[in-house]
Amino acid sequence: MITLLTYDHSLDGFFTAVFEVYEYKIEKAEIRKEALEKPALFYGLHRVITDPKKAERVFKKLKMLLGEKGIHQIIYSLLTEDEHCERPILEVIKYAIANPEKKVLSNMTNQSVLKLERYTKQVGREKHRMEAFVRFRLITDQIYFAEIEPDFNVMPIIAKHFAQRYQDQKWLIFDQKRQYGLFYNLQTVETVEMDFSDKTKDLEMLGNDEDLYQNLWRTYFDKTNIKARKNTRLHIQHVPKRYWKYLTEKQPF
Amino acid sequence: MNFERINEKLSILADAAKYDVSCSSSGSNRKNKNKGLGDASGMGICHSYTEDGRCVSLLKILLTNVCIYDCAYCVTRKSNDIKRAAFTVQEVVDLTINFYRRNYIEGLFLSSGIFKDANTTMERLVAVAKKLRLEQNFNGYIHLKSIPGATDELMKEAGLYADRLSVNLELPTVEGLKLLAPDKNRQDMINPMTFVKNEIILYQDEKRRFKKSPKFAPGGQSTQMIIGATPETDLQIIHTANDFYKDFNLKRVYYSGYIPVSQDARLPSLQSQVPMLRENRLYQADWLMRFYGFRADEILDVKKPFLELDVDPKLGWALRNLDFFPLNIQTADFHAILRIPGVGVKSAWKIVEGRKFTKLNLQHLQKMGVAVNRAQHFISFANSFIKTNLLQQHNLKDIILGTVKSKYQTHYSAQLSLF
Ligand code: SF4
What we know:
The complex is a heterodimer of chains A (253) and B (419). By secondary structure, chain A is an alpha/beta fold. Chain A has helices spanning 11-23, 52-79, 86-98, 111-133, 155-165, 200-203, 210-223, 232-238, and strands spanning 3-7, 29-33, 44-47, 137-139, 143-148, 170-175, 180-184, 189-192. Chain B has 2 domains: 3-223, TIM Barrel; 322-417, no CATH class. Chain B is globular, with a radius of gyration of 24 Å.
C-alpha cells in the first residue's frame, strides 16, 4: 500500500514531507509535487503542510549523516524539477538513516546514489552554462538586463556568482520559462516576479551605445575563429542550439 | 568613441591574436574588492565557443600588429603585406570593461607585435593592466604576454597586475627557432620566465607569512609551441614540455598545430592541413604526464619517436605492456587503475570507493562512466564467470578500434599518409 505525500515544491516542504514519512511511520511513501497530476494507482493521500521547524530538524539530521555534499546533492536534485526526483532522494535518505555508520554516498553501486550523482551533475552543468551564457544588455535606468530559459531551475544557485562578480552595476536576470527573476539594486539581490512578455520592448528604450557594443562583440566572435580548423560538431556540442536565442554572438549583425 | 574605427581595429587585432591557442582563465584567486567590478577565482568560464570548437573566455587581442621582427611562421611578420593597426591603451580598457559588464568575457588576454623594442612594448601592455586595476577597480582575469627581452622591473610590474604571464617558446627546439626566427633567441624567452618563476615563489612565501601582501601572477605562467612547422619529433616536443613543466612550474604548455600563413621554402606549403590529430595526441600525452602518473619515457622513446595516430597514447601504452594486465578491479592499486584504457581520473576514484561496498561488475563500471568497450579487455573481476579477457588475441587493437569510432577518423586517413 502506497501513501502519496504531496508538497508545495519548496525545499522546506520536501523536508517536512520526509519528516512526516517517519513521524507517521509510512512504509511505502511517494513524495510528489502538489501541482502534478496524481498517478492513477495510489491508496493513501497525505497533503503535507510545510513546517519550517520539522524541515529544520530533517535538515540538521541529514547534514550530520550526509554532510555538505549530501545537502548539496539533494538541493540540486530537487532543482531538476523532474517529476520523479523525490523518489531516489527519499531512497538515499532512508538508506542513510538505516545505516548511520556507513558513508552511503560513496556507494557507487547503489542506483539511487548514482541517480543523485547524475542529477547533481546535470544541474551543475546547467548552472555553469547559465553563468557563461547570460548576456546582459544595458537598458533604461542603467540596468544590465538578461533573459534566460534554463533547462532546470538554476536561478537560486547562480545568484551568488553574479552577486559577487557584478557589485557596481544594477542587473536583472529573468527566467522566461519560470517567469521570475533576480534583481540587484546595488545593495541586495531580490527575487522579482513580473510580466515581462510585452514590457521588454519599452525597457529597450536606450539612447546609449548598447547596439554598438553588441556589434563589436559579434565582430570579435567572428574574427577569433580559425576557419581552417572549423569543427561544427564540437561547436554545437558546447553551445547547443536551444541556447542560441539569447546569445548576442549568435544573432545576425 | 568612434565605433567604426574601433570595429576595424578589433577585426584586425583579434584576427592576428587568434593563433595563440590559450584562452584559459583558470588558476587565479582574485576576489572582488571594495564593491568593484569582477572577480577571477576558480575554474574560469568559457562564455562561448568559436565555430572551430574552441573556448572563448578572454578578449584575446594584440595591442598592435606592427612588428619589427620577421618570424616566418607568424602572420604579423614585418615582411607580410597586411593591414596594420594599433589600439590606444584607453581603447583596450574600454573594450574590456564594456565586454565584461555584459558577461561576454572573463577578462583580457593582451599580446602585441614588438613595435619599437621589447621594453616599450612591454611598458604599454603593463599600462593597460595597471589602468584596469587601479582606475577601474577591475578584478577580472588579465593574461599578459611577456615580451622576450623586457627588463626585470617591467616584468615585476606586470606580475603585480596580471593573473597570468606567458612567453611563447614558439618552436620546440633551439634549432627550429634559428631556422624560422633568426633574430630571436631562446635565452631572451627564458630570462623573463625565470624571473617570474622566482618572483612567484617569493610572493607565495611572503603571502604565507603576511596575509595582506600583494599577489604576483596568481594564475602562474604558461607557454605555447607551434607543432608541425619544423621537423621535430613528438619525443623532442614531449621532453621540451616536460623540462619546462619541471624547471619553470608552468601551469600549462599549449601545442598549436601550424596553420600555413606563408609561402616559404622553410615551411610546409600553403596547402598543407593543420595537424589537428597530432596536436590532439600531444595534449593526450601531456595529460598522461600531468594527471595519470606516466613518465615521458613511458610514452615515447628513441626507437619510437612519434605518437601513434590510430590509437591514443594511453591505449598505445597498454597494448605495448600487455603483461601489466589484466588488473583485478577489486584489488588493484589506484595508480594502476588509472592506467586502464577507458578509465578516467573520476571513474578511478569511483571504482576505489564503490568496491568497498560490493563486488564490482561490468554494469557498475558502465554506470560509473567507464568506457567499458575499451576497458573490459584489461580487467578481471573477482570470482566472475564471464571471460571478457581477450588479451591473448593478436588483433586486440583491431577489436578495440572496431568498437570505438575516432572523432578524427576523417583527418586520420588524410594525414596518415604524411608519416
Ligand atoms: S616577434 Fe612575435 S609578432 Fe613579431 S613576427 Fe615574431 S612572432 Fe610575430
